[in-house]
Amino acid sequence: MASYLRSWLTATPVAEAKPDDSIPTFTRVSPPPDDDEGSETETEGPDNDTPPAFPSLLSAQRVQSAPKIPLDSQLMPPPALPNSALGVNLAGVRSPEATSSLSVLATTTKPVKPTKKRDKVALAPGHSPLDWALLKSSGTDLRGVDTLTRIPPSVLKKHNKKDDAWSAFYGKVYNITPYMAFHPGGERELMRVAGRDGTKLFATTHAWVSADFMLDACLVGFLAPEPSS
């Protein structure tokens, strides 16, 4: 029995089996931790991809580069200087000590006199501009002639009476007799152009009025030069 135990204890150990290189082996590797499971000191919040301001909003560089807004006192024009400071005395004569080219000189502009206002006369009932327009469109003969003709100045000047008045405006001759009672300036003003060319007076007193539109129904002819003898 003792010899048996002795032989068992002194027996040659069996060689450990070596792994076969032809058989692949796999090593289990633990996955890396997620970003969300990182440090406990990381604060949770919405993602913000906006880069930080550079330079910082409170940095000295940003304060120095900020545009300066002018004050109201800097935007206001300088106050006007008295006449003595501009080199002009109270009498309007340039003082000898004034050397600036910006000095104000005495004005020589004369005041413009207002033109005399033309007075309108009171028209009789039924002689308003609307009544004249109705008379023109009524078909009444306001010409007093059968056909339009060429009228020289010698023929025009014969029609210078109140009951037979012709006048020329812009090369056209009109019988202004029917318009006498409808003229806002009165018959007296209209008789100033009876028997002659009234274009200049018409343009001076009321150039904005169309003579042809007002007297188209009274057209008798066209102003022509005197025939050669």
From TrEMBL:
Where the record annotates domain Cytochrome b5 heme-binding, the positions are 148-224
User: What keywords tag this UniProt record?
Assistant: Heme, Iron, Metal-binding
InterPro entries, alphabetized: Cyt_B5-like_heme/steroid-bd, Cyt_B5-like_heme/steroid_sf, Cyt_B5_heme-BS, Cytochrome_b5/Flavoprotein_Rdt
Give the Gene3D superfamilies listed for this entry.
Answer: Cytochrome b5-like heme/steroid binding domain
Listed Acidic residues bias regions: 33-47
Q: What residue spans carry the region label Disordered? A: 1-68
GO MF annotations, alphabetized: cytochrome-b5 reductase activity, acting on NAD(P)H; heme binding; metal ion binding
Q: What family is this protein classified in?
A: Belongs to the cytochrome b5 family.
Tell me the protein's name. Answer: Cytochrome b5 heme-binding domain-containing protein
- Name the source organism: Asterophora parasitica
